[in-house]
Amino acid sequence: MRQIFEHHPRYGFRFIPGIRARIPHEGGGYLVRSNASGFRDDAEFAAERTPGRRRVLLFGDSFTAGEGVSSGQRYGDWLSRLLPDLDVYNFGMPATGTDQHYLIYREHALEIEHDVLVIAVFVDNIRRVDSRYRWFTDDRGNRLLFAKPYYLLDAADQLQLHGVPVEKRPIALESLAPTERSAIARTERFPRLKRGFARLRQQPWIERVVVETGLRDRLLKALSYQPIPEYDDAGSPAWRIMRAVLQQWITGHDRPVMLMPIPIYHHVAGLAHPGAYQARLREVADATGALFFDPLPSLSRHDPAQRRALFFPVDGHLTAAGHEALAAAMAPAIDELLRDGAPGATR
User: Fold this and answer.
1) Closest Cα partner for 347 from 259, 245, 262, 288?
2) Which of 123, 211, 241, 340 is the most buried (most CB within 10 A)?
3) 223-235 pLDDT per residue, tens
């Protein structure tokens, strides 16, 4: 796959500015275009708002950047079509955590006029916030370990930024102490099980058995699958850092903020219980005055086949249909924020 990212010393990496590339994907491939700021957006990010138009800033990871779908099919693009006179600036960056999204905001968005800030928290991001390193695969298929910026809490529970400037070169795993190796980001609770299913699905007839019959989903449900246990304890180290980042970000912002969790397929399909992450993020919204908007009830109202179609079966990202459904769920809440200029009651 063509290399589409470049190093950034403050938050780790960004899209190569001005890149145009087609990326292979299980969905058939998708087009990536980036602007001069290094974000996957067709528009250049102007500081001043266009007269007569409203503006929303989106921050998130690959679900917001739109991995797997072309520009125009992402939920931010759909929002600009569903709501009149709305410009959406998409600062989404794949393979990043909410801590990096906050650094991106501080680096690029402080001087940009806007009406609403949306912090989209893919719920698995709590693991990225609680990490200092992450594995990546380069354009030659090599698996490389890179450092990322990270926050720690001091004795007074204040955030302290570490790892900046971010190391540009890959890190040798053997050079890390055991305690540092534990700070490498994890991506799933049962990696061997996931890799086993991925190998099985390479055979078409096995795919029909595993996916179409729902065998995988039934197995996960039987295992009482809890994909993200880090939210279970309000005092867990990972959640304390995540909460501090969100609180500092929201309370330091002078415009309306929407705090929105993006669920994984297991939550939408009813295979895992969302109560813990919903409670934790709602607590942050209540404490900071942000609007907590949870799209899960809307996404879960689809029938089982439609819910499956909202996500790619292998990599788990939103399909074009998933982005459209997410935008349709968000649009009324965004419209209310734009009209009222205040979050009002949480949802």
Assistant:
1) 259
2) 123
3) 456 789 999 999 9
Give the position of tokens 């029909």: 208
Asked if 245 contacts 159 with a C-beta cutoff of 8 angstroms, the reply is yes
- What is the C-alpha R_g of the chain? 20
Sign of the Cα torsion 98, 102, 105, 108 reads negative
The DSSP bridge pattern shows strands 20-23 and 30-33 to be: antiparallel
Quote the tokens at residue 113. 């006029």
Which pLDDT tens digit goes with each residue over 92-106? 999 999 999 999 999
The tens digit of pLDDT for each residue in 152-191 reads 999 999 999 999 999 999 999 999 999 999 999 976 544 5
Instruction: Label residue 345 by pLDDT band (50, 70, 90).
Output: very low
Q: Which residues, including other chains, have CB under 8 Å from residue 286's CB and lie 6 or more apart? A: 292, 346
* Local structure of 229: helix, strand or coil: helix
What pTM was computed for the model?
Answer: 0.90
CA 57 to chain centroid: 14
Counts for the chain of helices (H) and strands (E), in that order? 14, 13
3-class secondary structure, 22: strand
Location of each CATH 3.40.50.1110 domain in the chain: 5-186+233-340
- CATH class, 5-186+233-340 region: alpha beta
